[in-house]
Design goal:
Layout lengths: L5 E5 L4 H12 L3 E6 L16 E4 L5 H11 L3 E4 L12 H19 L7 E4 L18
Parallel strand pairs: 1-2, 1-4, 2-3, 4-5
Length: 138
């Protein structure tokens, strides 16, 4: 399905995003990441030469649109999020990141001719602290 595909990953600096980027590059895909200029990319240090990094704030619709048009991806993996950890308490930033930034990405993606799929995912951290092991019904 992804053979010779161009993939865009948001949230590439995070745990899930970095592991996805690592896997996609190992499998030989054309990988682009959208990162904030101040993103800490230490998880990707060993593979930064294999990906194309675009400094794009997802809250800036014009820049998101321009980047996606220039990349023309087949697949977008949207992992950028805020609020999954107990120290993420800024409600305004939660709304901006999880709703407004996502809406910008999805709106800009509507115009892409080669786009086949957008995957929007998060981690189990979004469910909060749970004293029991996670299960599908959570």
């Amino acid at each position: 399905m992804f053979f010779m595909s161009t993939i865009v990953v948001t949230g590439a600096a995070g745990f899930i995003g970095a592991n996805a980027v690592r896997r996609f590059t190992a499998d030989g895909y054309n990988v682009h990441i959208l990162t904030r200029p101040k993103s800490s990319l230490w998880r990707l240090d060993s593979i930064m030469g294999a990906v194309k990094n675009h400094h794009v704030d997802l809250l800036d619709y014009a820049k998101v649109e321009k980047a996606l048009k220039s990349i023309n991806p087949n697949f977008i993996f949207h992992f950028a999020a805020y609020g999954a950890y107990p120290f993420h308490k800024d409600e305004e930033l939660i709304i901006k990141t999880n709703i407004n930034a996502s809406a910008n990405l999805f709106r800009a993606a509507r115009e892409l001719k080669n786009l086949k799929l957008i995957v929007n995912a998060g981690s189990s951290s979004e469910y909060g602290v749970n004293p029991l092991p996670m299960k599908e019904s959570d």
